[in-house]
Amino acid sequence: MIPERALWVRMPRFIGDALMIHQALAPLRAAGRPLVAWGPAPVVDLFEGSGTYAATVADAGRAGTWAMAGLLGRHRAAGVINLPRSTRGLLAGFLARTPLRVGWSEAGGRLLATQALPFKGRGDHQADRYRDLLGRAFPDLPAADSAPFRPREEAFVQAAALQRELGLEGPFVVLGLGSAAGVKRLGTPLWIDLITWLRAQRIAHVLLGGTFFEDLAQAEALRAAFPGIPDLCGKVPLPVSAALVSRAAVVVGNDSALAHLTAACHTPLVAVFGPTRPELTAPRGPQVTLLRNESLACLGCLLLQCPVPGHPCMEALDPALLRRAVAASLSLAGAP
Question: What is the top-level taxon of the source organism (predicted)?
């Protein structure tokens, strides 16, 4: 049931951004404010039943702005928190005469929002921008750290069944192959080196990724190199991935939704960054280890196609550096 007078949180289509927004809302949760997660179906499905939102509302396709406004009006929303860059949520709140509308001032947002700040022109982390905007809208809220994210119980049941089926009963490492941008993926030789080391240490591991063609192609290459390797790429829904991640000893990956999910679950993470800038969007937390090929001057180029032969930021990382980081994270997690 959707409560009246709740704060409706507009979620973006990017999972990583949605998880950073979820973590930024910790002070509102601590204060007992009822929140409704509202947005694209694959995103809100992750939060459904997690106990962190009073309700979740998935978009019916690409809902029109008037339909969105009608939804807010029918449920007498107390406010719209619109942290994605799109102003559709703000416009819907404006049309519905929602009393509180929080968002960014660009693209007409200053005219639509009751509380706004600029997003552009800042060089700080995206999560800090969320914090500042929410602090402006709710100045009396005390600081609060985000609790570890846990998906709905059904996802844990499915994850436990998969662990038994794949022989992942003890501590295991999740190898996160996926990324929406191919330029952010680790090279297959690096994965082969790491898997060889994990097997020598008798540490269980599983491949995890999405349905992107490059995810599936890399998983196929690793299955050829290691016949019988547990592979869940493209095979489990996001809530089950969250449950697996929360039960893992360590997750290894790149700048991806899975990395942000790992940080939100407070699971030790080793993430390799190359073309993207960790100071702007990296997962945060004391259990997060970020690696980069620091010998390169082109790090953080933000290009979608690498002009350097061999794509060295993601292909030429020292494999020993990756192994050492994973070993340290396993020690942190108490795994052998």
Answer: Bacteria
